[in-house]
Amino acid sequence: MIPAAFDYAVAESAEHAISLLGEHGDEAKLLAGGHSLLPMMKFRLATPAVLVDVGRLDDLRYIRQENGHIAIGALTRHTELEHSDVLGDACPLLKHVASLVGDPSVRHRGTLGGTLAHSDPASDLPAAVLALGGTLVAKGPNGQREIAANDFFTGYFESVLADDEMLTEVKVPVATGGWNYQKFNRRAQDWAIVGVAVADGGAGVSLVNMGSTPLRASAVEAAIAGGASAADAAAVAAEGTNAPSDLNAEPDYREHLARVLVERALNAAGVD
Amino acid sequence: MSVIGTRMLRKEDPALLVGEGKYIDDIQVEGQLWMGMVRSTVAHAKIAAVDLSAALEQPGVVGAYTGADLADGYWIAPMPCAWPVTPDMHNPPHHPVAIDTARYVGDIVAVVLADSRYAAADAVEHVVVDYDELPVVATIGDAVADETLVHPDLGTNKCYTWALDPAPDATAAALDTAPHRVSATFKQQRLIPTAMEPRGVLAIPSPHGGDLTLYSSSQIPHILKVMVAATTGIPEHSIRVIAPSVGGGFGAKLNVNADEILAAALATKLGKPVRWTETRTEAAGSTTQGRGQVQHIELGADENGKLTAIRVKLEADMGAYLQLITPGVPLLGGFLYHGVYETPTFSFTCEGYFTNLTPTDAYRGAGRPEACYAIERAMDMLAAEVGVSATEIRRRNYVNGGDAFENWESPAGIVFDSGHYGPSLDAALEAVGYDELLAEQAARRTEGSRTQLGIGICTYVEICGLAPSRVLGSLGFGSGGWEHATVRMLPTGMVEVVSGSTPHGQGHETSWAMIVADKLGIDPAHVTVLHSDTAQSPLGLDTYGSRSLAVGGVAIDMALDKLVLKAKAIVAHQLEASVDDIQLEGGMLSVAGQPDTAVPIQGVGFEAFTAHNLPDGMEPNLQEAVTYDPPNFAFPFGTHVCVVEVDEDTGNTRVRDYVAVDDCGVQINPLIVEGQVHGGVVQGVAQALWEGAVYDDDANLLNPSLLDYLVPSAMEVPNITTSFTVTPSTSNQLGVKGVGEAGTIGSAAAAINAVCDALSENGVTDIEMPATPQRVWRALHAEEIGAAS
Q: Is any Cβ of chain A less than 8 angstroms from the Cβ of B700?
């Protein structure tokens, strides 16, 4: 619970943060809400030499609707998503999922960009962005690029983000079709043992904590697209997954939960 | 006006709520050094070598020590176990720092000292320990097998066998011939106590004055003082122990720990303040844990389900060493395995075993929740066996048919002060709406609902008010069970209470002020309580075992009686009246029938102080002391009903409702009583559904953080309806029993009875704690899962 020594720098702008990252290479980590990074540092599972604090970049805190999608600044706190009227009208799934992350103190610190960049397969919001078919905007020394959420996550706590890149914006489509989020856990504040996000009447379905990354439930999506019932679609929910084993759940139980929760989520989203 | 029984807000809370509490880490002193513990990363190993050289070169490091370094002159005796439960009990030496063998993950193998907490933590990482690993005893089962030994010198893992078995043959015969029998084995998983404030210690020496002030986040400053002296060799009269604000303990601060001994010894040797605060991970794996038992219980009953015999055999996990009262904890339940029921024969045997795990010790309820769990689970099984309801089997067996009783001699040979179990059950069933719940349960089953309703009932009894000193002596306990109180009225009429009870969240300052205010007829705000500092309160036996009110509070009440008598004598003298004619009412002393003679009792404090006009031979000042040794324990009881919904598809259990009807005798402050019940219920339900230390085959703790060790939060806490019956104790003059542990005693049993009731139609008869969703799902679908794999 006592972190190793580190240097600390406050970024004045995204560009400044990126130049600091370039300067320190993989020794540096961006600090946003700190609710994932700081606990890992306290356990000495992460020992970055430099923390680059981007938490004060208020120009990256916004939620606005533009041209058929919603643009969200990467430093937007979960609590701002949770209480956003824009999302309530145009993307209620994301608003709802944000309300289920951790507890109020986590939601007041944690940021959307932070949770995506952290790429924890057990986190709620990455799976929601995945189900929504979102796009992530990353800035680096050579300018910015857009990355489809589908292509973003590469492994356990790993993404395509380069050491000197930072997320600046997340775009999700306006999505008011049938939606639902099922989060199964033992305490409200915990990560999902298994979670299921359904967007757009079943066109987008994703799974939380069923592999090394947040996963698209492609088999379920295909079944729904082919006109299958919710029950039949749910039956293939574990296909293509690689469920982890931990004290809460072994893989066979997780696969079972995925099937149960996918059916519930589809039903709640209006798919019979 | 009576103050006792009112819902007075706690005097402690305003200061605590605005951050004025002084916990260990709030006390910082110049020149202090931080200890950093190098802890064994393996469960059992010879310590081949410890290399401190790199650590000693780290910035800020002023010293580093192995066990061998310290054994020479830093302590004079191993760490204390104060409860040798049998004359032949094995108590292998337990040094603050292991000398040649590490016996659990977390065992201290070296200590570093540095000028900051960060420097100490960094230096710990630079100590290189070479372990020669040994085979591991990771479970009670491994220990019983006795093939691998935790302490090879002993030749066995068995620590002791303790029996309360007056008529084994009669018990055996009754079981053999019983028309109805139940035989069950239950596992009490290890629990991690998890007080909100971790443990911490600060030792401040006075190198030239020769004395030592030891701050510790402890439940037992008085006992700690004695034990630090006995272990370190520092003369007892040179030690002052202070437990400042203490943020919870739950039994895990009822101990004498290596860190306390090390801080005292190092501070004294170096002449510098030495401190340490555990991390949450250290708290989980190195501070004592609770429970850790395998329970075998057998019931025999006649055709009508009336008990004819109970036989219990425990295997209790001591962990790697004996801490302060490790071996005695299971025995505190030994007297209660028949619960609230009459039985002609009763046999109890407990075997303690060493394992390569963290030592166990007291945890809220300490032996009694385990006992209640076994008998109350077994009674539900007996009901199924006999074919009667869970309520009916209890009514048929309650002591005295469920009617009121006093001074009942139990089958375990102790005397229950008072009880009245029938109305407790009636009240709980009515409050929970039992008939409606039964109808709903049946309807769900008829409809084929996938969410089953379960109703779990538990009537508990516990032993509180520890304890008559002679009884403790007969059990081998190394201390008495008395408590001390001094009450003094200051010249201005304010009252100081000096109590040997040591609060760590219970609200003693409020309750003690209420007892004083009630007796003297004064404003509770005019009372202050001095406690938890051996210089202010030199005599005391501290707080555990729900003893504070029934022993410490009664001592205050008795001291007040003496103080009132003296005040009356002064007033009688000054009014030239007979002391027998002086009455105290509403804070005024007067000659009976002569209201114009009334003088405020708070003015008598000044009269006693000036001593201008006292009866001949009377000592000045109004101050009285009582050291009270209770004649008997007190036996609170109650009935809890837990209502759960179990999702058959996910295995998830939701606690829908919880009713607690408790009887702790006379209540001083119902607000505090309710708070204790709420917390206790949550702690017991937590054992049933969420908590449990999990170890792998190599005895590594797999859930040493609050990420994985699931202490429930406000979101999981069920709605709890509390109500009370009041059956005064016959053991003391206040009629009080104690309530600190009551909520915990019956709640795990009520919760698991509810889960098993929900699943009873699915052929599930028992489920191991904690009843996790996965565990429930596997129990429900055992056949399909088995077929699929």
A: no
